[in-house]
Specification:
The protein is mainly β. The protein contains two helices and eight strands, in the order H-E-E-E-E-E-E-H-E-E.
């Protein structure tokens, strides 16, 4: 690769902000945990493997987080309304979620979480993603 090729590739790599708005939480208890994933590895449960993570306060059932310097590419988002602030999803005795969750593209969790592909979107610069939380 020549220096000119390297420089021109670097100039085409854009980064921008990514704002995530989260709506529909049943109360303002706890916080919302948001993971931004660049690959299917770890999505959606392993926050350690997320490209970036954030935590937000809830007001009137809504929250938002801002991720800065997100490069162009394909990403997926997983969010959890962590009502009890224990950093994990609370479950009912039958194993179903007892705290609200959501995914980019409002991807459905049918008999388990959606795949990375169903929740993925193309990030090309400053962008807003809206997620409706559900239980």
């Amino acid at each position: 690769m020549t220096l000119l090729t390297f420089i021109s590739q670097r100039k085409t790599e854009k980064s921008g902000s990514l704002k995530v708005t989260l709506a529909g939480m049943r109360n303002d208890k706890g916080t919302v945990l948001v993971g931004l994933y660049k690959t299917e590895d770890g999505f959606p449960f392993n926050a350690v493997k997320a490209f970036k993570g954030a935590k937000a306060e809830i007001k009137d059932g809504n929250a938002e987080v801002d991720f800065e310097d997100v490069p162009s590419g394909v990403f997926a988002i997983a969010a959890l309304h962590d009502e009890d602030n224990n950093m994990q999803m609370a479950r009912k005795p039958n194993g179903l979620p007892n705290e609200e969750y959501g995914f980019s593209n409002d991807a459905k969790a049918t008999f388990g979480p959606p795949t990375f592909d169903k929740a993925s979107f193309e990030h090309t610069g400053d962008q807003v993603i809206s997620i409706k939380m559900k239980i």
